[in-house]
Design goal:
The chain is of the alpha/beta class. The protein folds into two domains: 42-59 and 84-284, P-loop containing nucleotide triphosphate hydrolases (Rossmann fold); 291-459, 2-Layer Sandwich (Ribosomal Protein S5, domain 2), CATH 3.30.230. The chain is 28% helix and 27% strand. The chain has 13 helices and 23 strands. It has helices spanning 45-58, 89-95, 115-126, 139-148, 164-174, 199-216, 235-238, 288-293, 340-353, 379-391, 417-426, 436-439, 456-459; strands at residues 4-10, 16-17, 33-39, 83-84, 99-100, 104-109, 130-134, 156-160, 178-182, 219-225, 244-249, 256-264, 272-278, 281-284, 303-310, 313-325, 333-336, 361-367, 399-401, 404-405, 411-412, 431-435, 449-453. The strands form six sheets. Strands 8-7-9-10-6-11-12-13-14 form a nine-stranded mixed sheet, with helices on both faces. Strand 7 (130-134), helix 4 and strand 8 form a beta-alpha-beta unit. The longest helix is centred in the middle third of the chain and has 18 residues, at 199-216. The protein is globular and about 75 Å long. The protein starts with a strand and ends with a helix. It binds adenosine-5'-diphosphate and magnesium ion. Adenosine-5'-diphosphate is lined by residues 109, 111-117, 148, 252, 277, 279.
């Protein structure tokens, strides 16, 4: 009989303490500790091995012993074809080229963003050998979603269950190639007394699923909810355990959905997949720049187009700025899709180095389309959008801007300038304002004027 101990666990990051703490020393969150109880044994790899071995007695499948002795590197047989493309190109791109056998993938996102839809569409594309475990919806609800997505004839099995042991048994019996667990917060193990969704439950269930994934050589997707303030237990705690973390973003009122890998043991973490949510499900956006720019009003001041790099591709995004006279003592600075502190820095550079008196202007900055851009190559575009709005002079509609700004007002070279310029030309732009430092590396191109600048004041209009 294992001993049951009481712990206080931070529901945000999983930090454990023996007494209640007001503020978490790990993630600095207040009031995040909840009392949980866990048996001494749960959590250990040995224990997980035992649990699966016990289940295996019910069905003696091909259980691979993970505790086997060390192997010589040269003797390990590498399987080159260990990736299975799902057929959804945007999804495969983010995964790093397709599903990897023996991998545990966490798909996180706010409720309603489209996680279940994405998983069902992936299952439909894989055409068979998929077990969809739903802890949130009944089999009828899933069937009705499948009908809406025109995927109701797909060869897959649905299990509405939240008891982890029963789920593991089904996986061992049915031997699917791909398992979707929707969602990890609904799973529970009887021997852990905390409620489903608590850190102890989520961690234990995920650890067991991880063990099964590796030993059975299958691909498992765990769906996890995160709320806006990140208070719900789960995904944060799981991030260290799983192989890949996919984040599904975009606000519910917006049509775009962006899938991003924030951790990937099998691929790059820079790639993004872009989808549009429609009645019949998620539609892949293969040329996002066109869509991002489709609603642009070229006659308004404060709008500048910037070619940004997202993973392996270039996207053209519209930076919108609005500078208006403040009605209060303190001017407001608000951003959407851009770092607020970076905006404040760029405003200071504009004031000091370009002599633009912004001290009594409210400044709002928005990256159109719901995209979040962090790369510094957008700096010059942001600065020019603000200046365009402040001076009420619209930017030439066929011009794109790229460049990083230094504190001295110098415009610094950016990476992959040629690819960015080519993408802009492809979409009909014929003038590029870019750092002088990038000019010498660019080949001569027809149909486009390249304007190289060294300092921010040279770009002002
Ligand atoms: N009957 C419907 N018709 C059209 N769109 C729907 C319908 N039901 C749900 N949706 C869309 O699907 C979204 C929910 O997707 P879902 O995959 O269930 O999200 P999650 O699993 O992330 O909570 C909703 O926000 C809505 O946009
Ligand atoms: Mg769902």
């Amino acid at each position: 009989m294992s001993k049951v101990k009481t712990l206080f666990v931070c529901q945000s990051c999983g930090y454990q303490a023996s007494k209640y703490l007001g503020k978490c020393p790990e993630c600095d969150k207040w009031n995040s500790f909840v009392e949980e109880s866990a048996s001494d044994e749960s959590g250990s790899a040995k224990h997980h091995d035992q649990v699966i071995r016990n289940l295996k007695k019910i069905d003696s499948s091909t259980y691979v012993d993970l505790s086997e002795s060390a192997q010589r590197l040269e003797e390990i047989q590498f399987q080159a074809d260990h990736r299975t493309p799902t057929g959804i190109l945007e999804f495969d791109r983010v995964l790093g080229g397709g599903l990897v056998k023996g991998s545990l993938v966490l798909v996180g996102g706010e409720p309603g963003i489209g996680k279940s839809t994405l998983m069902l569409q992936m299952a439909a594309h894989l055409k068979g050998d998929v077990l969809y475990v739903s802890g949130e919806e009944s089999v009828y609800q899933i069937k009705s979603r499948a009908e809406r997505l025109a995927a109701s004839k797909v060869n897959m099995k649905i299990l509405a269950e939240t008891n982890l042991e029963k789920i593991l048994q089904t996986i061992l019996r049915e031997k699917p190639q791909v398992v979707v667990v929707d969602s990890v917060q609904t799973l529970y193990r009887e021997e852990i007394q905390s409620a489903p969704g608590s850190v102890s439950q989520v961690r234990e269930c995920a650890a067991l699923l991880m063990h099964l994934t590796k030993s059975q050589h299958i691909s498992v997707f765990l769906v996890g909810h995160v709320t806006k303030d990140g208070t719900l237990a789960g995904p944060k705690v799981l991030e260290h355990m799983v192989d890949t973390v996919l984040q599904f973003e975009g606000d519910q009122h917006h049509l775009f959905r962006i899938l991003r890998a924030t951790k990937n043991r099998f691929g790059s973490t820079n790639e993004i997949g872009i989808f549009e949510m429609q009645d019949k499900g998620l539609i892949e956006i293969t040329n996002p720049s066109e869509l991002f720019l489709s609603e642009r009003d070229v006659h308004h001041s404060g709008s500048v187009v910037v070619p940004v790099l997202e993973g392996s591709r270039v996207l053209l995004v519209e930076v919108q700025a609005l500078a208006s006279t403040t009605s209060y003592g303190m001017p407001q600075r608000t951003t959407s899709g851009f770092d607020l502190r970076r905006l404040q820095l760029l405003i200071a550079v504009l004031e000091k180095r370009a002599r633009l008196p912004l001290g009594s202007s409210d400044i709002f900055l928005n990256i159109a389309g719901g995209l979040h851009v962090e790369e510094p190559a957008i700096d010059l575009g942001v600065a020019l959008a603000i200046s365009s709005s402040y001076q009420e002079k619209p930017m030439d509609p066929h011009t794109v801007v790229l460049g990083e700004l230094g504190l001295g007002g110098e415009v610094r070279a950016v990476s992959h300038a040629e690819r960015r310029v080519r993408e802009a030309v492809k979409l009909g732009f014929n003038r590029v304002i870019l750092p002088k430092g990038n000019l010498k590396d660019l080949p001569s191109m027809t149909g486009v004027t390249l304007v190289g600048i060294r300092r921010i004041d040279e770009a002002m209009f």
